[in-house]
Sequence to fold (226 residues):
Amino acid sequence: EIVLTQSPGTLSLSPGERATVSCRASQSVSSNYLAWYQRKPGQAPRLLIYGASSRATGIPDRFSGRGSGTDFTLTISRLEPEDFAVYYCQQYGSSPPWTFGQGTKVEIK
Amino acid sequence: QVQLQESGPGLVKPSQTLSLTCTVSGGSISSGGYYWSWIRQHPGKGLEWIGCISYSGSTYYNPSLKSRLTISVDTSKNQFSLKLRSVTAADTAVYYCARGRTYYAPWGQGTMVTVSS
Fold:
């Protein structure tokens, strides 16, 4: 089972700032099969990125993903008020179980 | 657009069976070749993939839950279901249903299930 470790646990930033969330895998994620999700309180999680760098339908271009192998990042270029949320990475590159990171909270500073 | 909604008891006694249903609206569960998944989140912890099923009944299960788990699909009702047997307090979690086998979109809002006597 691939273990995903996200850092930092909490990111305190102001609107307009750049947010970078890291996701490190315990072994290489095949074919860069890594996804990112956003979850706000009381709402369903939302897919942001799949295949490490492809934005899901309707996701603004201020969200970007990159990385390969064991190191991946999610970047929000300029934080909007609605972007303060918890972000999770997830790998689906190996056989089941597909696994998630523990989450990174992006909070208003 | 496709929407998913979980339903089922919010409280289950230890050793009993946890049963949840996910109703899909805005599209057919049989179209598009999608798998339909269950994911849970224990209080204060990360997300855990439980398993998934295709419209034709093919399944993938998390090995850690496989011995207690059954996921089924009812295409006539546009629903899929989860049954987790012999539950303990460790199964207390928010349970989500979602579309997809590998990555997931969209998700349901989630339903809290507490295992307690």
User: Anything to note?
Assistant: Chain A touches chain B at residues 33, 35, 37, 42-47, 50, 56-57, 88, 90, 92, 96-103 (CB under 8 Å). Chain A has a mean pLDDT of 95. Chain A has no helices and eleven strands. The CA atoms of residues 29 and 93 of chain A lie 5 Å apart.
